[in-house]
Amino acid sequence: MRILGITIPDEKRLEIGLTTLFGVGRSRAQKILKEAGIDWGVKPGNLNTEQENEIRKIVESMKIEGDLKREISGNIKRLKDIKCYRGIRHLRSLPVRGQRTKTNSRTRRGNIRKTMGTGRRAVEKK
Q1: Is 52 in contact with 17 (CB distance < 8 Å)?
Q2: Domains of the chain: which residue ranges?
Q3: Most buried among 44, 45, 49, 94, by the most CB within 10 A?
Q4: What is the CATH architecture of 70-109?
Q5: Distance CA 39, CA 26 (A)
Q6: SS3 sequence of 46-109
Q7: Cα dihedral across residues 17, 8, 42, 69: positive or negative
Q8: What is the predicted pLDDT for the residue at 50?
Q9: How far is the C-alpha of 21 from the C-alpha of 55, rounded, in Å?
């Protein structure tokens, strides 16, 4: 089964399989299936074409995949353009949501590790 050019895995339950679409999590997948009147545990291979088309119609009415990615990147660009605090944090590749940076934030800043020391050599014991 394909929706918006993305293949939904046949071996997974439909509730989980729909989460392969960007912008669809578990709760949204459950909402889609409830609206379509389809059981959550059904596998995509067991659906008839009428049910597939119903899911496709519901999903296409939502803002997901490319449209959602474009909107998110537009929002970030706007923050950068107006040079607000969050926009500056995005520009400098630092955590945006108030996390500490003295330690941690390795994901955002990159994994370049520098060993810190006292700056002097350890004195040998005799």
Answers
A1: no
A2: 2-60, 70-109
A3: 44
A4: Irregular (4.10)
A5: 14
A6: HCCHHHHHHHHHHHHCCCCCHHHHHHHHHHHHHHHHCCCHHHHHHHCCCCCCCCCCCCCCHHHH
A7: positive
A8: 92
A9: 13
- Can you tell me which residue has the tokens 């700056």? 119
Q: Do residues 16 and 32 touch, judged by C-beta distance below 8 A?
A: no
pLDDT tens across the length of the chain (126 residues): 888 888 888 899 999 999 999 999 999 999 999 999 999 889 988 888 999 999 999 999 999 888 999 999 999 999 999 999 999 999 998 999 988 888 888 888 887 766 666 666 666 665
Confidence (pLDDT) at 116: 66
Burial, 87: exposed, middle or buried (Cβ in 10 Å; 0-12, 13-18, 19+)? middle
Alpha-carbon distance 39 to 44, whole Å? 11
Q: Classify burial at 17, counting beta carbons within 10 Å of its beta carbon; exposed 0-12, middle 13-18, buried 19 or more.
A: buried
Asked if 18 and 29 count as a contact pair (C-beta separation under 8 A), the reply is yes
Question: What amino acid occupies position 3?
Answer: I
> Coil, helix or strand for 17?
helix
pLDDT of 6: 87
